[in-house]
Amino acid sequence: MAIGNTLGSPFKGKLREEILLKFKDFNDFLSKNRNLFKTYTDDTQLTLHLTEALIQGNGFRIDNTIKEFILWLYDPPISPSYERLTTIRKLERGIEYRNASTKSKGNGSISRVAPIGLFYSNNIELLKKTAELSSMITHSDPTAIAGSILIARAISYLIKLQDNNIFPINDFFNILIPSISNIDENTQGEYIGALEKLRENLDLSANAGLIKFSQIGVKSPFFIEEYLGKAFIHPYSVSTIICVIFIFLNNLDSFEQSIISFITAGGDTDTVGTIGGGLAGAYFGYKNISTDLIKLVKNRKYILDLSERFYKTYLSQFRKLI
Fold first, then answer.
1. Count of domains forming the chain
2. 30 within a domain of the structure (yes/no)
3. For residues 175 and 162, which has the higher predicted lDDT (pLDDT)?
4. Cα-atom radius of gyration of the chain, to the nearest Å?
5. Closest CA to 249 of 297, 306, 206
6. Span 41-47, average pLDDT
7. pLDDT band at 320, cuts 50/70/90?
8. 29, part of any domain
9. Is 127 exposed, middle or buried (0-12, 13-18, 19+ CB in 10 A)?
10. Backbone angles phi, psi at 100, to 5 degrees
11. What residues make up the domain containing 283?
12. In whole angstroms, what is the distance from residue 309 CA to residue 315 CA?
């Protein structure tokens, strides 16, 4: 996910057609413009802090997570959203998280949920509760909470998927939909309707699919009229998740191609690269990620060490459950 976040960052806010005009071959463009891809953003930073909190607490503890999020303020934050910065500054001042959290329906809490999908992959009920609590620290709207649960559940499914020539698409949708059964009826209905519409339209071209789903569910004043009929991805949680899953399911041949498709989709490309990178990483695995892409990531030695510590903590907790 740090790879997707790093590669997506320079393209944030641009339409897909604008991004694709910059190159014919992305790898060639990357080799000649590595200076553009110097860092990840707050999406990766907060994911790393959440991972540290999971290690410290041998699982999710809200106090540890809040403490780590406050430490993020001193990293310092890289390209932070106003909502995240404001919320976490409130936490630093001692405001209780339920009062500090924003009512945003945006994708911010979804972008950092991957470690929860990994850590609780053997306990789906706890995964759902933890994804909800993690979201509520900064994003308490049910739309953001449901999105966090969906992506965490997707990751827990993908890491356990056996090698198969044919991806079990219907099974994938059928495990995602029940995961949000405890969310309020309106939010649940919006996501289920969008997921079913996606399931019926997976054969669309990349451009047609992104045009169709780019602003699914987005209402005024957040709907961008001038982007109507354009391919990009809106930061609204529902449209982000539907577009990310659409891209993922149409790029199952390689990690690299999957990442390129995420970061060239247009719109909120840094966060899309983060969320999509989490799905792709869970599905393809570390062994299928090229060394060149790994070397691109800032602080990669720390991230690899953190991953090892995280895995050891996961194993120690998993053994207690069996």
1. 1
2. no
3. 175
4. 18
5. 206
6. 99
7. low
8. no
9. buried
10. -85, -30
11. 2-22+37-321
12. 10
Write the single-letter amino acid at 261: S
For residue 233, what is the domain's CATH number? Answer: 1.10.4080.10
**Distance of alpha carbon 75 from alpha carbon 209, whole angstroms:** 37
pLDDT band at 128; cut points 50, 70, 90: very high
Can the peptide bond before residue 115 be classed as cis, meaning omega within 30 degrees of 0?
no
Q: What is the pLDDT of residues 239-287, one digit of tens each?
A: 999 999 999 999 999 999 999 999 999 999 999 999 999 999 999 999 9
User: What is the number of H-type helices and E-type strands within the chain?
Assistant: 18, 0
Is 225 exposed, middle or buried, given 0-12, 13-18 or 19+ CB atoms closer than 10 A?
Answer: exposed
Is 94 among the domain residues? yes
Report the alpha-carbon distance of residue 185 to residue 161 in Å, rounded: 30
d(CA 98, CA 102): 9
76, 305, 109, 278: CA torsion to nearest 10: 130
Q: Which amino acid is at 146?
A: A
* Reported pTM: 0.97
* Confidence tier at 138 by pLDDT (50, 70, 90): very high
Q: Please indicate, yes or no, if residue 269 is contained in any of the structural domains.
A: yes
- List the beta bridge partners of residue 245: none
The total number of residues shown for the chain amounts to 322
Amino acid letter, 176: L
Q: Given this model, what pLDDT does residue 15 score?
A: 98
Yes or no: say if 109 and 134 are a contact pair by the CB < 8 Å rule: yes
Two tokens, residue 155: 């990751």
Q: Is the pLDDT of residue 125 over 80?
A: yes
Q: Is the pLDDT of residue 321 over 60?
A: no
The residue written with tokens 């109507």 in the block is 228
Structure token digits, residue 198:
């996606």
Q: Is the dihedral of CA 90, 95, 97, 101 positive or negative?
A: negative
What's the CA gap between 269 and 251, in Å, rounded? 16
Please report where in the chains the tokens 């950092």 appear, as a residue.
Answer: 112
Instruction: Check pLDDT > 60 for residue 218.
Output: yes
Enter the tokens of residue 130.
Answer: 């933890």
